[in-house]
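Training component of the fellowship. As part of building independent skills, the fellow (R.M.) carried out the full modelling exercise for a liganded target. The chosen ligand was magnesium ion. The inputs are recorded below so that the supervisory panel can assess the work.
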Amino acid sequence: MESRILRVESLSYKIGSHWILRDVSFEVSRREFVGIIGPNGAGKTTLIKAIVGDLSDYSGKVSVSAKIGYLSQNPERKRDFPIRVKEVAAMGLYGERGILKPLRKCDWKKVEDLLERVGIYDLKERRAGTLSGGEYQRLMLARALASEPELLILDEPEAGVDEMGKSSFYRLLESLKNDKNMGILMVSHDIGMVFEACDTVMCINKTLHCHTSADKIRPEELQSAFSGDLDLFIRSRDHFEREHHL
Ligand SMILES: Nc1ncnc2c1ncn2[C@@H]1O[C@H](COP(=O)(O)OP(=O)(O)OP(=O)(O)O)[C@@H](O)[C@H]1O
Ligand SMILES: [Mg+2]
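Fellow's submitted model of the complex:
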């Protein structure tokens, strides 16, 4: 089986005369957990949109050879929509089952297992609109996982998730990566966690400033990408190293 599941070649995108992304190239393989970091406005979400097919008019080439599960940044919430938590998670199954086919018992079992794994099983009968921000984010992850993706793409999935939830969240991703042979591409501002959980780190600010294995990256390398935010980067990194006695 080919291990490469995503290839991005010379991706560039501009709005008017303003470059948003310039000449970005990289690959992702099965069982690779890639973290994308970079300051606000760096083009991370734009890059993800190009990969999932939500962006037109870019130049370069995106080749995907895997089934994608996608959790967008700030997913839209319809608070009044009368749909239960377990039904929202089950929507992830429709790709395989067809939206009009009733779900079988084993489908509901799968949904409940996922809700359990993301830590919101007890909320399964609740109306989705009543969930808190972090609970809703976990639900969105369960929905993305229900489609059994081979490449899971997450744009700031931990936003709003509490500290306890965050570490179990990353542990869950790691075990899914190993159990399901999945590739993961995750945008995050939680730099310490990215270094801890990811195999590979990509630092983006319009261009790809560095792309290397997480244990090889050095703060100096990121200077150009984070420019004014470098202090912040070093502080998070120091904090991370202190916490882990490196
Ligand atoms: N439709 C648009 N019109 C004008 N500018 C846009 C549009 N969409 C995105 N941009 C700009 O493109 C740049 C990249 O945006 P993008 O959402 O990719 O950043 P990001 O790296 O995901 O940032 P964040 O960390 O804040 O999520 C930003 O400066 C943004 O303002
Ligand atoms: Mg973004």
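The panel noted the following from the submitted structure. Residues 78-148 form one domain. The chain has nine helices and nine strands.
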